[in-house]
Amino acid sequence: MPNVPTPHNGAKDGEIAKTVLMPGDPLRAKYIAEKYLKNAVCFNTVRNMLGFTGTYQGRPVSVMGGGMGMPSVGIYTYELFNFYGVDNIIRVGSAGGIADGVHVKDVVAAVGACTDSNYAAQYRLPGTFAPTADYGLLSRAVENAKKLGISAKVGNVLSSDAFYSDQEDALKLWRKMGVLAVEMEAAALYMNAARAGKHALCLLTISDCPFTGESLSAAERETGFTKMMELALSLA
Questions:
Q1: Is 208 annotated as a binding residue?
Q2: Which of 25, 107, 183, 232 has the fewest CB within 10 Å, making it most exposed?
Q3: What CATH number should be reported for the domain whose range is 19-233?
Q4: Cis before 5 (ω within 30)
Q5: Catalytic positions
Q6: pTM
């Protein structure tokens, strides 16, 4: 492939699988590789955004961190789709649960990603683009969740540019619209996939609930999301 390695990814052509699992935290990528992949080889250490390729149940799979926020995940997923020939990216991230009935450790599959970001402005569209998951990946995730005994909640999430928002009522307004959870990357992932003609899905584990005060520790966020990881790996 042209343009590889890149300033952000040290992998050479052929070192990344067609399906990539992408947590935000590179240490979670390392954990997934060590726990689930056979013969995992590290293909990237640039900026400590660790990436690994191995096999899962005989199938090639890569896992790579994507960082925090849409600018970061936008760079890594763009390069994976357009420079490295990746076909599928499955985000395996954390989110804050905002809907009633959503609690810590719940798994959420994002049908769509509402956003307060201006990321779509680059496409100069004559309207508003609705970032959505690949239906094939989403439908398989729902079916596989049932087989694995995972109760996955399916619905809209919010991809926000602001972790610390100055608008105190923002999440309450999104909750009124049925949004299940808030995170910071899915919308950019879905837009990059749409533009490249590729496939993407965002799976999330609820790490905290702003309205109830429920919260997991940093260590639990790094290594405790095994249900989501196993569901994502079942799609590879």
A1: yes
A2: 25
A3: 3.40.50.1580
A4: yes
A5: 208
A6: 0.97
